[in-house]
Amino acid sequence: MELRTLADARSRIDALDTEIQRMISERARVAQRVRDIKAESGDTTDHYRPAREAEVLRRAKERNRELGGPLADEVMARIMREVMSACLALETPLAVSYLGPEGTYTQAAVYKHFGHQVAAQAASAIDEIFRDVESGSAMYGVVPIENSTEGVVTSTLDALAQTPLSICGEVWLPVHHQLLSKRQDSSGIEVVYSHPQSFAQCRRWLDVKLPGVPREPMPSNGAAARRAADQPNCAAIASAAAGELYGLRTLASNIEDDPNNTTRFLIIGRQNPEATSADRTSIVCSAPQGGEAGALFRLLEPFARGGINLSKIESRPSRRAVWDYNFFVDIEGHQSDAAVAAALDELRGRAGFFKILGSYPRAVI
């Protein structure tokens, strides 16, 4: 159809909108039929399938490139994510626990990974998120694991070593901090509230722009914004969404010291996702007691020999004995892959403590 006038273009958009809406409704009806088929067969497995959804999103990005669409691959995948979220909610809305209150970056990670049609439940601390999922009051939890500027979140690592839950997904979230306040400008600010990680990520900006102003740590950025909403002479470092939620003005935007500041979050649950075309496996292990020379080398050697890439390694006190450490390792591949399985079996025989935390699809969007 040749579009000669503005009226032609608008008419075509109206027709396309009708067709898009018809196709989304048809997809939703198929999702309802999936629910019914599973009920008829007695299938009680979780209707959220991380591996399946990761592949759907990857195909959406591939199709976008094949079709030469003007939208970015990421944008197209995010649109599909919301369609999938709405369709899943027709079966049973997913209850997902996150570090609250409302307005935190963890809540933003929930919506990026699951879409906005989930039942997001705010928890007051990271260990509470694990308890929510372990007790069944939430089906999944979203927890921060590391930041590109400030490194790992130790409370999450320690909880992973103890929990019976598995990692079943991950999400990467670009983090842009705003200075928020009820005030018109930054003069007269007596205290700044934020999460300790955010203070660290904005250290240079604060030293230059607000030298000498006390910095009071809070359990989350959302809690900081909520506190700032109640106190006229203070400010919070939090997201733009938190500012809107709590009625705060943005006094300064993107104050993080590193413009590429990104936080990685993990999805925890009871699932063990099947392999996809791009997976990651996380493990925790320790060397045998005795302090043998080369113990860490012996733990990692099977991966090198198997040609398996290690993307991260961190150590934390094991709390089993003085100077005994757990090593948290991320590797490329799925535990069902032959080479990965062989390396993990060999490591299991060498380690004093060994646990697979999960194999899961790498972040797609």
Automatic annotation (TrEMBL):
List, for all copies, the residue spans of the domain called ACT.
Answer: 284-361
**The Chorismate mutase domain covers which part of the protein?**
1-95
Does the keyword Phosphoprotein feature in the UniProt annotation? no
Output the Pfam families linked to this UniProt entry. Answer: ACT (PF01842), CM_2 (PF01817), PDT (PF00800)
Q: Which GO terms describe its molecular function?
A: prephenate dehydratase activity
Keywords per UniProt: Amino-acid biosynthesis, Aromatic amino acid biosynthesis, Cytoplasm, Isomerase, Lyase, Multifunctional enzyme, Phenylalanine biosynthesis
- Report the pathway entry: Metabolic intermediate biosynthesis; prephenate biosynthesis; prephenate from chorismate: step 1/1; Amino-acid biosynthesis; L-phenylalanine biosynthesis; phenylpyruvate from prephenate: step 1/1
Q: What is its EC number?
A: 4.2.1.51, 5.4.99.5
* Catalytic activity annotation: prephenate + H(+) = 3-phenylpyruvate + CO2 + H2O; chorismate = prephenate
Keyword Zinc-finger included in the entry's annotation:
no
Domain named Prephenate dehydratase is located at: 95-270
Q: InterPro entries from the xrefs?
A: ACT-like_dom_sf, ACT_dom, Chor_mutase/pphenate_deHydtase, Chorismate_II_sf, CM_dom_sf, CM_II_prokaryot, G/b/e-P-prot_chorismate_mutase, Preph_deHydtase
Compartments where found: Cytoplasm
Tell me which domain of life the UniProt entry assigns to the organism this sequence originates from. Answer: Bacteria
Signal peptide span? none
PANTHER family in the cross-refs = PREPHENATE DEHYDRATASE P PROTEIN (PTHR21022), PREPHENATE DEHYDRATASE-RELATED (PTHR21022:SF19)
The record describes the protein's role as: Catalyzes the Claisen rearrangement of chorismate to prephenate and the decarboxylation/dehydration of prephenate to phenylpyruvate.
* Protein name in the entry: Bifunctional chorismate mutase/prephenate dehydratase
State the organism of origin: Banduia mediterranea
| Lineage of producing organism | Bacteria, Pseudomonadati, Pseudomonadota, Gammaproteobacteria, Nevskiales
